[in-house]
Design brief:
about 140 residues, alpha+beta, Alpha-Beta Plaits, 4 strands, about 20% strand, binds ribavirin triphosphate, binds magnesium ion, cytoplasm, nucleoside diphosphate kinase activity
Length: about 140
């Protein structure tokens, strides 16, 4: 068993019909999908999820965008999951993302960048538990 990361397919990628293609990239890169759900965040829940950024100038825009449509939340498992998944999704701004990364392929812009990936093992656990109960995390 590898370790875990958490991801969200963001409202832009869901609205643009990229759920299937993104899940294929994730499986193709060797991640096992441990838990998966489609849901929608209220502005309150989106604000809580991204609370670490609440002093940043883009926070309001980020919360508005993340609550603007459905998202797909998932817990993923693989050796070195957090770091390998950040490589698979590419740079935050798709203009700077490497060819073949999920953001290069599917993101529209810095603000509408298709997918989230946890930035540490600790945050992966916190974020996974934000969406999934203990019983759902097998
Ligand atoms: P994420 O948390 O969504 O996986 O993205 P990330 O780690 O690559 O980037 P982070 O620094 O955590 O920022 C969270 C999201 O905020 C938006 N952002 N906008 N306008 C701006 O300068 C700006 N900077 C960041 C991005 O959509 C980013 O994914
Ligand atoms: Mg981040």
């Amino acid at each position: 068993m590898g370790n875990r990361t958490f991801t969200m397919i963001k409202p832009d990628a869901v609205a643009n019909g990229h759920i299937g293609a993104i899940l294929e990239k994730i499986n193709g890169a060797g991640f096992r999908i441990v838990a998966l759900k489609m849901t929608r965040l209220s502005t309150e829940k989106a604000g809580e999820f991204y609370a670490v950024h609440k002093e940043r100038p883009f926070y309001g825009e980020l919360v508005e965008f993340m609550s603007s449509g459905h998202i797909v939340a998932a817990i993923l498992e693989k050796d070195n999951a957090v770091e390998d998944f950040r490589k698979l999704i590419g740079a935050t701004n798709p203009a700077n993302a490497d060819a073949g990364t999920i953001r290069k392929l599917f993101a529209e812009s810095l603000g509408r960048n298709a997918i989230h990936g946890s930035d540490s093992d600790e945050n992966a656990a916190i974020e996974g538990s934000f969406f999934f109960s203990g019983l759902e995390q097998f």
